């Protein structure tokens, strides 16, 4: 079996992310980039890379961690996030579902078919709200090539064509309070992120979320991994087909503001407020 040269492998990771930032113009000079830092390998690699590129691309860097309230799991991620931010001398701001909405994810998960449904809605909301308050020009997430094609195929399977506008390495600013997201790991497969973390002995939180196995994403991930092991290169081909398709679906969703909380929303009442109201209604005697 061929052994990997750590220096060459790290250079491949850095060069791939660097060219995504450059080719897709993810960052403008002077901007403040806030990294969504969960403490997992993808977000820690994103922080590592951006802290290395700060001078070259001339931007400032901060991070935000969200505690969803998943017992036996999230606390370890937050610990890894704090350590990474400290080691790289990056300011870290923390928010939690409990403080913002009055409940932890664990408290409400039974209402839904999958923990990922409420988690996704509330985390997206809180990440954006916190990053906006921090003055972020861009919100960098750790989405890798696998995450992107899983999301793409899930939307495809649900015929949810509106979501196609949310794909790609950079989202446009479609509302003054909606911080545009960027994905520096867009062309890096998940397996390579894991190899990078192990090879460089980086402290990351490797455990799987206890709710992950109930999601459609987990099934899609297994399916794609199977396909890739039989036909190497399939994942990259899907991303390339998607990139061509996505150019034809750039029409943006119109955004206004939620009449309850004032956060950006394409609906009168945003999904987070709608779900919080339902949960509170059920809780009240
Ligand atoms: Fe949230 Fe699902 Fe991710 Fe767990 S796997 S952190 S529930 S989105």
Automatic annotation (TrEMBL):
The name this protein goes by in its record: CTU1/ATPBD3 family protein MJ1157
The species this protein was found in: Methanobacterium congolense
Superkingdom as given in the UniProt entry: Archaea
Positions of the tRNA(Ile)-lysidine/2-thiocytidine synthase N-terminal domain: 33-163
SUPFAM superfamilies: Adenine nucleotide alpha hydrolases-like
GO CC, alphabetical: cytosolic tRNA wobble base thiouridylase complex
Keyword Transit peptide recorded: no
Gene Ontology molecular function: ATP binding; transferase activity; tRNA binding
Keywords attached to this entry: ATP-binding, Nucleotide-binding, Transferase
Gene Ontology biological-process entries: tRNA wobble position uridine thiolation
A Pfam family reported for this protein in Swiss-Prot or TrEMBL: ATP_bind_3
UniProt-annotated binding residues for ATP: 36-38, 42, 66, 142, 147
InterPro entries: CTU1-like_ATP-bd, Ncs6/Tuc1/Ctu1, Rossmann-like_a/b/a_fold, TilS/TtcA_N, tRNA_thiolation_TtcA_Ctu1
